[in-house]
Amino acid sequence: xxxxVVGSIALDSVETPHGKVDDALGGSAVYCSVAASFFHPVQLxxxxxRDFPDQHVKLLESHDIDLSGLEVxxxxxxxxxxxxSADLNHRDTLSVHLNVFGNFQPKVxxxxxxxxxxxxxxxxxxxxxSVLEQVERPEFVLADTMxxxxxxxxxxxxxxxxxxxxxxxxxxxxxxxTGESNLIRAGxxxxxxxxxxxxxxxxxxGSFLFSPRMRFAIPAFPVxxxxxxxxxxxxxxxxLMGYLAGQGRWTNTELRKAMVYGTVVASCCxxxxxxxxxxxxxREELDRRYREFIDFxxxxxxxxxx
Amino acid sequence: xxxxVVGSIALDSVETPHGKVDDALGGSAVYCSVAASFFHPVQLxxxxxRDFPDQHVKLLESHDIDLSGLEVxxxxxxxxxxxxSADLNHRDTLSVHLNVFGNFQPKVxxxxxxxxxxxxxxxxxxxxxSVLEQVERPEFVLADTMxxxxxxxxxxxxxxxxxxxxxxxxxxxxxxxTGESNLIRAGxxxxxxxxxxxxxxxxxxGSFLFSPRMRFAIPAFPVxxxxxxxxxxxxxxxxLMGYLAGQGRWTNTELRKAMVYGTVVASCCxxxxxxxxxxxxxREELDRRYREFIDFxxxxxxxxxx
Lengths: 306, 306
What we know:
Two copies of one chain form a homodimer. By secondary structure, chain A is α/β, with parallel strands linked by helices.
């Protein structure tokens, strides 16, 4: 009942009002895998160049992430650099060098093929679909996407949406995908495109779940010391998928709890650059934040103390 | 145990992608009073001109709103006009004519002086404070404010904050008042300025409550047919205050429920121009939406059916 994660592994250079880092460990598959690892073993598929530091490999291994699917190819690792605005609500991408990730053709090792939970991190929809052809009868497949693919590979994305169980994307992307300015209508329309569940991320404003059976929404976990928002969305998806894989099912009740676990892992992530804060947390700390969050959002506490 | 509401009464001309209205009933005290009236009798203090249509007076009376404090003065009623963007997230004020509201000196009738719950809708802080001097031992006083007063009457506003129990304002105003870009720090800082509870409205992203004893946040009630957002914030405050006045106390538990009632009244308000949708709703419909909202935000349902 393992969790398969496929996506980018990057060296990020990031500047925020709180400082900067150069060539720090990043990438969607990295954030997602480490986030998920607090809940369930992860099998990673990704590619790096020969320059990928051994310390990063050791970090991933220390989180019990299976690296049988990690390719090391000739060339350099994917690099991204960006700078955040003073209020951290906007970021400019300064440079993108796909390097070895540019020709990434995910190869799912035999030992991963029976993974029951699969997360297809942001990537070309055709590439995401190629993974689906290499896994046997997954129980739950969640895909992420971004504005680039909505713009340039819409037909492929529409095809992908017929073949996955869930889609996770942010509010702007949901509006872009559907042409709807109302988020509720956007979520409902994406459901009609195929997925059985749609999670919409709204950053500091929380997240929204749509399914034909229910709607569910939560605020973000309150954080008063955001250092670097990079990777928060991937940690949300990772925490969510790790929790679901750990439970082995994605009922309504488990989906609600999974959204909260995704939220609390993301709240840890943003309290440091790169993986700095995330790597120092623990399942105990995440469970503590989970309980704090329940109190934070509960309208009618079962004990009516006031 | 009545609820006193003091604020503006206006004739609004509003244009949204769904149509337009001219000289329609509006104003913070009107939206707030009608919203509150579903939960508790309201005593209104406000001013209109001789041109104020009798049908609007009848509408307010039909909601059991006590109009002993309604002044009718020589001149024209306050008029505001505005236009919303295609996605309804931005609005331009096209014109403001304060008219009789420009010299508004609220006079609290003797029959209102023992009101236990008081809502000071958006207005000059000095004017809001003049109301406090006319009421005896209120149990809970909530004030609203706006960017104009933060800019032009900051000292008065700071003084007001020492004398009220609660402040309600939107997220941009909270950041402006404190100079903080992080909403959590902004809320905490406003608490230090005096109020025992701060409610921050985030429009379609929900609302946040800060008190020294707890933090609480909820999303907005999902509405897929927003016609006109005008008055939503006043309805939020009105529903909240009406519910609290009806309960006669503002414990943590009641504050949480009050936030939800404010949210569901606001969700009705935006489904029509002016008071069109709000006047057609009922306590039963609001209770139905309340229960729907509880299901919408509950992480761990007590019955674990899935």
